[in-house]
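Hi U.,

Before I forget, here's the chain from the pilot set. I'm dumping it here mostly so it's searchable later in email.
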Amino acid sequence: MNTPEPAGSAGDEIGAGVDMKSLWTLLDPGTRQWLMDHTGSVVVPRTVTAAMCRESEQVVPQDAHGQAWLNEDDMQFIRTRAHSAFAEHGTERLYEAVQPRPTRLPPDSGHDASHYRD
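Structure:
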């Protein structure tokens, strides 16, 4: 099964990615934070893409919907920046998606909830 490619990804500007390394220092801290908070996103929403264009005063390759597409180099660069930022602030967990533990189970559940208590 063929996966659809983003508009323009057949080797032209969008397929080449955004070149995040050259844009990074030009971006607002809030935009950089959004990118670090969403390190798994291949597609950058149009509002963030518009902010990237405005802040860097450069044209960022976009699809027909105004979204930027990140290539593997862009994503790796953002992950590296995110790891560095989190390490600097002493945070050990970055990519974990852990659901909160239940604090109390219903009395009729038949489960021992003692291992859920702190």
